[in-house]
Amino acid sequence: MRAQRVRDAAYRMRHHVLDMGEAQGQGYVGQALGAADMLAAVYVDQLTYRAEDPHWEGRDRFLLSTGHYAIGLYAALAEAGIIGADELDSYGSDDSRLPMSGMASYTPGMEISGGSLGHGLTVAVGMALGLRHQGSQARVINFLSDGELDEGSTWEAAMGASHHRLGNLVAMVDINALQADGPTVGVLRTEPVADKWAACGWHVQRVDGNDVDALLAAFDGISTEQPSVILCDTIIGRGVPMLEQREKAHFMRIDADEWQICRDQLTEGYRGVPA
Ligand SMILES: [Mg+2]
Question: Which residues place a Cβ less than 5 A from the ion ligand 1?
Fold first, then answer.
């Protein structure tokens, strides 16, 4: 079943994230756990790609604006077979192809060097325009954070995408209600988010970003006549109750003796999900 394949992949990816975090002793684990269902839906259900040829011209492009979520994307790339799962152990270490912040020149399948937030959608618009000029059927999917909605460049890109009626462009926004400087609502109030995207001319859907059925239904509902955005409300640390309940911080500290507890809680929680 389609949704179960995605849920199973997200579960394995969450384990990969915890393993990478433990190997390096750190990482943006909370964000990666929260976004695992979004990334699994993209890689298992949506993207057209060739695992053995990550630069294949006909591929769909997935652009990770949020370079610090790279730990989550590496788990997805391993799930997709674009990198080997055994390589994940090298995360963040010297000479690794998997640096802590995502860099296109290092990692197969990493399309852009994100991390300077607010640039991903601008690049995505250019790519989508270019692909359309080339007559390509490939799509561009851009993953943004809610913190990036503070950036003027994001909204310039949003208006440009709608002006050019880029039906080959999809944006996914991880609304985890937190950004580097604190809760999003206290940094710059961005709600009503859906109304803002709609005013910019986008096809808008808002879903529970940790509900795989809802995510897949949203992908089924995107427009091909105009750019589409899927606003995804997620929970930081999703799947690991100890982390879901922990006081939220942009960089969530996990002590050395806690990683195994996290893994056990993840495994225990997943058993309860019907196949
Ligand atoms: Mg955020």
Answer: 145-147, 176, 178-179
